């Protein structure tokens, strides 16, 4: 039986945090059993943040090691670097020619990020390149956090538009969003999502944070007035976020955690949460270190992945070129 396809990527724009892990990478690992999967490192997208070149190189390698440490298996999944498959940029350009400017200008990510970086054309065109990343592999599902759902809607619109203009070419993929952890919030400001590119390092817990750093960040995490450990998105955004994180890492329901900490203070809850994170992240960290040490085999995995990805992507692109009239 031919397996359905799943596709997704993460930017090497900083270190991977628990939001990326819970919202995206953990799902990738689960999907590789039942789907034919393509997971990549979207380095061209990371350029929209104008990174330092050396830092970009290091973060790209580091993300590859982290993918593997989290459980992606190169025997099951095609793991590669976006810029190693030129079809992404070519299809991205073609899709730009079908995309009204207004569609791109109304994207939340564009509005948020252009406040920080100024209005860069690359930031504006991020969603069309992302649509190309996805559509090339004709996937059924795209595992993402909630912040990317709007971009995925545009991907579906572009697939539909292309298909109706030039004949059936693309599948309209659907977003696969993990309900409980679709939007892990920033620890320093629980009204905004946790982000790699946040200016304040107390915004995120990185997968590679040491026990002391984890303890310190959880200790200073913003909580709410009052003292009750209770899930309430109206009045207790900070504690609700910490409860969600506790719940997914422990496998216990929010209700049972509320019960466990009834009558106890924030300090005890936070200290237990830190120890839980230290315990759950340390096996990933050990594997991460060992993958990072073996850079040659890491590069070989990425090379093999890009060969496979290029084959699939080129096939789709050939079909597209013919349909739109390129000779
Ligand atoms: P940046 O700030 O540079 O955009 P990021 O933290 O948003 O970085 P991305 O590489 O843009 O990370 O996103 C990778 C994946 O992680 C996407 O599927 C995205 O939806 C998901 N994701 C990002 N932040 C969160 C979050 N706070 N909670 C859940 N999922 C998230
Ligand atoms: Mg992002």
Task: Give a quick set of tags describing it.
binds adenosine-5'-triphosphate, binds magnesium ion, 327 residues, Tyrosyl-Transfer RNA Synthetase, 2 domains, Rossmann fold, three-stranded parallel beta sheet, mainly alpha, 14 helices, single chain, two-stranded parallel ribbon
Quick overview:
By secondary structure, this protein is mainly α.
Encode the helix/strand succession as letters: EHEHHEHHHHHEHEHHHHH
The proportion of residues forming helix, as a percent range, comes to: 55-70%
Uncertain residue ranges = none
* Radius of gyration using CA atoms only: 20 Å
Q: Helix segment count?
A: 14
β-strand number? 5
Q: For the report, how would you describe the main beta sheet? A: 3 strands, parallel
CATH superfamily of the largest domain, called what?
A: HUPs
| Largest sheet strand order | 1-2-3
The overall average pLDDT, rounded, is 96
| Fold-level CATH name of the largest domain | Rossmann fold
Bound molecules: adenosine-5'-triphosphate, magnesium ion
CATH architecture of the largest domain: 3-Layer(aba) Sandwich
* Coarse shape: globular
Q: What's the CATH class of the largest domain, please?
A: Alpha Beta
Q: Look at the helices and sheets and give the structural class.
A: mainly alpha
Beta-strand content estimate:
5-15%
Explain what the structure shows.
This protein has 327 residues and is mainly alpha-helical. The chain folds into two domains: 5-181 and 294-324, HUPs (Rossmann fold, 3-Layer(aba) Sandwich), CATH 3.40.50.620; 201-288, Tyrosyl-Transfer RNA Synthetase (Orthogonal Bundle), CATH 1.10.240.10. 56% of the residues lie in helices and 7% in strands. It contains 14 helices and five strands. Strands 1-2-3 form a three-stranded parallel β-sheet. Strands 4-5 form a two-stranded parallel sheet. α4 runs parallel beside α14 (295-324). It is globular and about 70 Å long. The structure holds adenosine-5'-triphosphate and magnesium ion (MG). The site of adenosine-5'-triphosphate (ATP) has 21 residues, from α1.
């Amino acid at each position: 039986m031919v397996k359905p396809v799943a596709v997704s990527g993460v930017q090497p724009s900083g270190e991977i945090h628990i939001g990326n892990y819970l919202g995206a990478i953990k799902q990738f690992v689960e999907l590789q059993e039942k789907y034919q999967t393509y997971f990549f490192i979207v380095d061209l997208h990371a350029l929209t943040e104008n990174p330092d070149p050396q830092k970009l190189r290091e973060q790209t390698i580091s993300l590859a090691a982290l993918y593997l440490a989290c459980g992606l298996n190169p025997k099951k999944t095609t793991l590669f670097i976006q810029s190693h498959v030129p079809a992404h940029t070519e299809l991205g350009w073609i899709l730009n020619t079908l995309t009204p400017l207004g569609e791109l200008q109304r994207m939340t990510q564009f509005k948020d990020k252009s406040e920080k970086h100024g209005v860069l054309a690359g930031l504006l065109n991020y969603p069309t390149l992302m649509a190309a990343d996805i559509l090339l592999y004709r996937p059924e599902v795209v595992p993402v956090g909630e912040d990317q759902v709007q971009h995925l809607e545009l991907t579906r619109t572009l697939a539909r538009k292309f298909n109706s203009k030039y004949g059936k070419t693309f599948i309209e993929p659907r977003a696969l969003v993990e309900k409980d952890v679709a939007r892990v919030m920033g620890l320093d400001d629980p009204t905004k999502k946790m982000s790699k590119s946040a200016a304040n390092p107390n915004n995120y817990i990185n997968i590679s944070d040491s026990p002391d750093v984890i303890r310190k960040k959880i200790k200073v995490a913003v909580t709410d007035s009052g003292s009750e450990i209770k899930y309430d998105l109206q009045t207790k955004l900070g504690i609700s976020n910490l409860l969600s994180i506790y719940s997914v890492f422990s496998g216990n329901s929010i209700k049972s955690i509320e019960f466990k900490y009834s009558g106890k203070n924030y300090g005890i809850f936070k200290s237990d949460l830190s120890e839980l994170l230290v315990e759950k992240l340390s096996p990933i960290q050990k594997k991460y270190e060992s993958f990072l040490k073996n850079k040659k085999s890491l590069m070989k995995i990425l090379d093999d992945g890009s060969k496979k990805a290029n084959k699939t992507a080129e096939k789709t692109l050939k079909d597209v070129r013919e349909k739109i009239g390129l000779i």
